[in-house]
Amino acid sequence: MNITSFVFYCFIVTFTPGPTNIVILSTVNNSGTKKAIEYTYGATIAFGLLLAISAMLNTILVTIIPKILIIMQIFGSFYMLYLAYQIYKMDSSKPSVNQTGTFMSGFLTQFLNPKVVVFTMTVIPTYIMPYYVSIPAVTISVIAITVIGFLAFVTWVLFGTIFKEFLQQHKKIVNVLMALFLVYAAIMIWM
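The chain above was modelled as a monomer; its predicted structure follows.
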């Protein structure tokens, strides 16, 4: 297993914009850091739960239908490219939607987030299961990915708090960079 590629893939996908990260920035801007952290806890628990469910489902699917991996890789790649395009063309002149920063809204947003569902359904079979299938190894991987996700959320909270004015002045450049990171992540699914 290429640990560097795995960790880099996890960091790119969790740190690039998606519904949860955008809501975190919006919550920081509209409700403050404390509410954004509360939202982050809910999102993190949902992320870990999705990873655990994915690990269980993929264990069953990989043993029953080995070719399911290619379908998940194709779907995941196309969805990430779609998100990159949406971020690239995002109208930065429109204000972001105000979301309430509660634990439950963070949990639900993350649990229903298509970017996360695609990520959790592709990361385990692509990077973990070809090399490790034991329950302890998969569990450690799920915990590690959850920690990476939590670090991404906290980084978005800090980023939004510290660079609030700068981000508002340079939204298009930030969107282009985040879109490019997502394109790279879509390509990394195949490596």
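The mean pLDDT is 82.
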